[in-house]
Each structure stands twice: as C-alpha cells, then as structure tokens.
Design a protein that fits this description.
Layout: E1 10-11, E2 15-19, H1 25-33, H2 49-60, E3 68-74, E4 83-89, E5 97-103, H3 112-127, E6 132-137, H4 142-151, E7 154-161, E8 164-172, H5 173-180
Parallel strand pairs: 5-6
Antiparallel strand pairs: 1-2, 2-3, 3-4, 4-5, 6-8, 7-8
Helix pairs in contact: 1-2, 3-4
Bound molecules: coenzyme A (COA).
Length: 182
C-alpha cells in the first residue's frame, strides 16, 4: 500500500493551514451543508451517507506530490475549523493544477480566504514551482471570483465540467511574482 503523502503546514499572519485529515470530516460535511456555502457548487451536500463518503474519499485520496487539501485554523485557536484550501490536478490535464477555497459562513468577509489562498499560491509557485495555477468558478459566484482576482488570476475562458458551466481563471507564475514585487 502506498503511504499517504504529507503536505507541509503553511503559516500566515493570522492562520495555520495543515493537511486536512479524517479528524476534519465532520466539520467538512457540516460546512458543505450550509446552503450559502455550496450555493454555486454542484453536488450532494445534505449530510447523507453519500455526502459523507464523498468527503471521506476526497480526504483520503492521493492527489500527487505536494497536492491535496489543507484545513484552515486561527493561529491562536487551532481547534476551530474555518474551512479549507485545495490544490488538485485539473481532470483531463496532465500538468495543470487548480486551487479552490471554502470557508464557514461566519468567517466570510475578514480576508481569511485571500490570506490562506495567498499562502497556498506561494507554496505552489515557490515550493512546487508550478508554471501556472487554474481556478474554475461558477460565473455567478462573485465572492469566489473576487478571491481569485485579488490573487492576480484573470479570466481565460468558459469551460464545461460535467454538467456545469464554469469560468476558467489562470494565474501564471511570472504574473504572480511580478505582483509580489509591486
Ligand atoms: C469564496 C469565499 C471563500 C470568500 O471568502 P471571504 O472571506 O468572503 O473572502 P476574502 O478573503 O476575500 O474576504 C472578503 C472580504 O473581507 C474583507 N476583509 C476584512 N478584513 C480583511 C483583511 N484583513 N484582509 C483582506 N480582506 C479583508 C474585504 O473587504 C474583502 O472584501 P473585498 O472582496 O471587497 O476585498 C467564501 O465566500 C466561501 O467560502 N464561499 C463558498 C464556497 C465557494 O463559493 N468557494 C469558491 C468556489 S470556486
């Protein structure tokens, strides 16, 4: 059996991100069950065994070296699950990696998603040396797009993912590096 790959902890001014584990399963399922959180995300988010099995599989799955999900916590309260950040391969692409974010609603509006996503983006470019990152976002999801734009992503094209019509955003490493120097 292949051993599960271990993601590094990532720290920001306010936050600590550590690999999402089965200890975060219940909190992850609860997060999805908030209809405002999953408003723009297709899936079964009703807390049913099917939903729980889906999240469990996402937690246990191996995504490739250095890729996967981080759970987000405050530095000064490492027990309260705030949500997650992910870096996972784009289905059907040999090399493209996508970033995604999901936060508990009571923590929206404090810059947490952007702060956590910036740390994961830095890791993707500085540690993994990925040439670019993708984000696939529902065009109606303005909050999600706003986080991508604040990181420097720009809209590339509409894409179909399963039965969903999403907007593909791209952030090349050199653009991100240039933005850090401003
Ligand atoms: C998308 C999502 C993660 C955004 O979370 P968020 O906390 O609202 O995002 P941000 O980190 O950008 O914070 C938003 C606001 O916090 C405010 N803010 C407060 N303190 C801040 C700080 N210290 N630093 C930065 N922003 C701060 C800003 O005004 C910012 O608004 P702006 O867009 O006008 O700049 C969240 O809405 C969510 O989980 N949605 C459901 C899941 C989802 O749709 N995910 C994306 C699917 S692709």
């Amino acid at each position: 059996m292949t051993e599960k790959l271990v993601l590094p902890n990532l720290a920001t001014e306010r936050l600590i991100l550590r690999e999402r584990t089965l200890a975060d399963l219940t909190a992850s399922v609860k997060l999805d069950q908030d209809q405002a959180v999953t408003e723009f995300i297709h899936g079964v988010w009703d807390g049913s065994p099917r939903h729980v099995a889906y999240v469990k599989k996402r937690i246990e799955r191996q995504y490739g070296q250095g890729l996967g999900y981080w759970s987000i916590f405050f530095q000064d309260d490492p027990t309260q699950f705030l949500g997650w950040l992910m870096l996972t391969p784009v289905e059907g692409s040999a090399s493209l990696v996508k970033i995604g974010w999901r936060l508990t609603r009571n923590h929206w509006g404090h810059g947490i998603a952007t702060e956590a996503a910036q740390a994961v983006t830095q890791y993707a470019f500085r540690t993994l040396n990925l040439p670019k990152l993708a984000a696939a976002i529902n065009p109606a999801n303005e909050r999600g797009q706003r986080v991508a734009e604040k990181l420097g992503f720009t809209f590339k094209q509409p894409i179909s993912v399963g039965d969903e019509q999403l907007a593909l955003y791209i952030l090349p490493q050199d653009r991100w590096t240039a933005l850090q120097q401003k």
